[in-house]
Amino acid sequence: MFRMPELEGDLVPKELSWLSFNARVLQEARDPSVPLIERVRFLGIYSSNLDEFFRVRVATLRRLCQIGDRARTLIGHDPAVVLEQVQRCVIDLHKKYNNTYNEVIAELASNRIFLVNEQGLDEEQVAWIESFFYRVLQAELSPILLDLKHEMPSLQDRSIYLAVVLSDSRVRRKKRYALIELPRHLDRFIVLPKRGRETTIIMIDDVIRLMLPSIFSLFRHDTFQAWTIKLTRDAELDLDDDVSLSYSEKLMGGLKKREKGLPVRFVYDETIEPRFLSALMKRLGVSRNDTLLPGGRYHNRRDLIDFPEVGSASLRYPPLEQVDHSRLPHRRSKLTVMRKQDLLLHTPYNPFQQFVSILREAALDPRVRKIKTTLYRLARNSDVIRALITARRNGKQVTAVVELQARFDERANLHWAEELAEEGVEVIFGVAGLKVHSKLVLIEREEKTGRKRYACIGTGNFNEDTSRTFEDLILLTCHEGICREVAQLFRFFSRPFTQLRLRHLVVSPWNSRDTLKLLIDKETSEAGQGREADIHLKMNNLGDAEIVRLLYRAAAAGVKVRLNVRGMFTARPGEVPGTENMESMAIIDRYLEHSRIWRFHNGGDPRYYLGSADILPRNFERRVEVMVPVYDPSLRAYLDRMLDLYWQDDRKARLLDGNQQNRYRDRGKGERVQKALTRLNRELHEPASD
Questions:
Q1: Exposed, middle or buried, 171 (CB in 10 Å: 0-12/13-18/19+)?
Q2: Which pTM value belongs to this model?
């Protein structure tokens, strides 16, 4: 369980609640009911999450510490105190992580999968690795000799380095010091030729350790030691204010500055030579006030996400079970279907390619005149981009609103923007002062009755890579009012002075906070008059103080409040008086729960919304987010069944109490919600057998 520091007040600091979320990820790695290789990958997810946490959340806290008392007013907590609490929690979790890692490695060995280092190899394996080194690895390495008394080269954020000492056991020879960066684009794990039923894996770190005498053969030293180090930097993107620069030029300048951002965490092998460690910290600008994590032989375990596909099939999740949406058959016009009825795609239970097929149809349809979309994070080999380019080549007017400040995807998005622009697509780089986080597609088609609009509004990115692991929803609609307002938004993206007139969509930063407050207040009023009232919210993060306190008030008035929150959760149900009616839980399982859904009883005429917005200040104030109403009765019925299934899960549901200890709901023999949703979609969409 997660050990939360002693708290004051009615809210949990966001950073501590985020660490509680990552502790839930670690729980999956510790869970013996999870297939063994998947447990290894959850260790990688935990490590990857923690990297981003330090680059963003911890870096922000450190900047807040510099502005004095005003910081407490901004975030509701003393950032210095929270930083201290974060460090204690991270160290505690680090111990649990290392213990879990060692347990998992032992279980791999019991399944004849051996992770060995350079000292555990026989002659035949050494010969194979030497051949691999000279064929593949040697040309990728660029060792840098160090003079500990002078300036050192800047270390790349998130890269792994071997800090190497060369010495001589025969004579008194001056030690030499060096750094070797591990190649980012090569697999971290090398699978050696199989012997019988045994699989042997070595990490590329240890291949380099084995070959240090060859790498430094120019020198006379005969003793080599190497320790792993990793530096995490502040990921804040600082854009130049020079008006003579284009936005893309400013972005590239900001990315270069990020690469030299202030250190926020330094992880090192605790057996490293003390003099070498002190010199590294001094030259890299790492102080004792930064988060220092002494660890073991290996760091950057985020690479465990890509652990090799070895061992029996039982060590991994079974193949993904997807079923085509029955109303979107392959040989039928998707736009024709959308014209007759709203549809809901639910990934990964329905394949994302059914959404892509709508774009492909629009790209070829002679009557389609315009396609407009927002792009936030895209697949490496994007079918969405290909469909947009095809549309442009077929004479359509194509507009892409590309958010260049999608954190850590800036370079990729700049690449896609340039590729689209070269094809003649109108590319809009977001809106000054706002991050375009909404997931929108608008298709305009000339029909016998005049121009007809079709809209696709999602809860997650239009990304084929993540669609197989992210749980998300896409509403496909031809609703005239909704489509008209989506068209208004695209006009705003190109002309930010455009006024929006919204009757259907809930859009940040215009009406989302006020609409949500009104919806909560309506339920509170209904309960106060003795009538049935309930609120059901599903999201990634809940961390807006005003909304949390309104939910407290609603629960105290008798509203049944159900909160399904995967990540940050700053509420304290059970600790705040009057919150007995507030139930809160989180699901961590095979797929990343990512959809955002609101449901309000509304006096017996329920209101449903889905979209891109979490309940955080940034989502209300600094982003363009869209929550779309769901009007179709059959889609509402699906959302009801879906939301209720989450509350029946007694396998993967963690209770989110006021101290976020991540206790499981009473674990029975029921069905995991993700398994139940797989079954539900089969029932709805598989053709009936004769």
A1: exposed
A2: 0.90
The arithmetic mean of pLDDT across residues 65-78, rounded, is 81
**Structure tokens belonging to residue 470:** 């992210």
Residue 154 in tokens: 């800047």
Tokens of 605: 């005429």
Q: Is the pLDDT of residue 260 over 80?
A: no
How many C-beta atoms lie closer than 10 Å to residue 496's C-beta?
Answer: 12
Strands 435-436 and 623-629: parallel
Check if 437 is active-site: yes
Query: Which residue is it, tokens 């998707």?
Result: 334
Beta-strand ranges (E) seen in 509-575 are 534-539, 560-565
Distance CA 613, CA 198 (A): 48
Rounded Cα gap, residues 299 and 270, in angstroms: 11
* Alpha helix (H) residue ranges in 381-479: 383-393, 410-422, 464-467
The mean pLDDT of the chain is 90
What DSSP designation does 615 have? B
Q: Which helix (H) or strand (E) holds 596?
A: strand 596-600
* CA pair distance 543, 554, nearest whole angstrom: 17
- CA quadruple 565, 673, 330, 482: dihedral positive or negative? negative
Q: DSSP for 335-373?
A: HHHHHH--EEEEETTS-THHHHHHHHHHHH-TTEEEEEE
Could you give the 3-state DSSP secondary structure of residue 543? coil
Q: Is the pLDDT of residue 565 over 50?
A: yes
Please state at what angle helix 410-422 crosses helix 383-393, rounded to 10 degrees: 20
Placement of tokens 């090569």 in the chain: 186
Among candidate residues 518, 547, 549, 551, the one with its CA nearest the CA of residue 534:
551
For the chain, what's the residue count?
Answer: 690
Burial class (CB in 10 A: 0-12, 13-18, 19+), 317: middle
Domains and CATH numbers, the chain: 1-111 (1.20.58.310), 115-237+264-310 (3.30.1840.10), 334-499 (3.30.870.10), 507-685 (3.30.870.10)
Contact 196, 247 (CB under 8 A): no
Residue 184 confidence (pLDDT): 85
CB atoms within 10 A of CB 332: 10
Q: List all residues 6 or more positions away from 418 whose beta carbon is below 8 Å from its beta carbon.
A: 248
In the predicted model, is pLDDT for residue 87 greater than 80? yes
Above 70 in pLDDT, residue 114? Answer: yes
Dmax over Cα atoms in the chain, in whole Å? 92
d(CA 213, CA 167): 11
Using alpha carbons, list the distances in angstroms from residue 240 to 236, 250, 257.
Answer: 13, 6, 10
Q: Which of 221, 299, 437, 594 does the annotation list as catalytic? A: 437
CB-CB contact of 575 with 552 (8 Å): no
Mark residue 353 as left, alpha or beta (left: phi above 0; alpha: psi -120 to 50; beta: remaining): alpha
pLDDT, residue 75, reads 81
Close Cβ partners of 481 (under 8 Å, ≥ 6 residues apart): 503, 504
Q: CA 412, CA 116: separation in Å to the nearest integer? A: 35
112: left (phi over 0), alpha (psi -120 to 50) or beta: left
Burial tier of 135 (Cβ tally within 10 Å: 0-12, 13-18, 19+): exposed
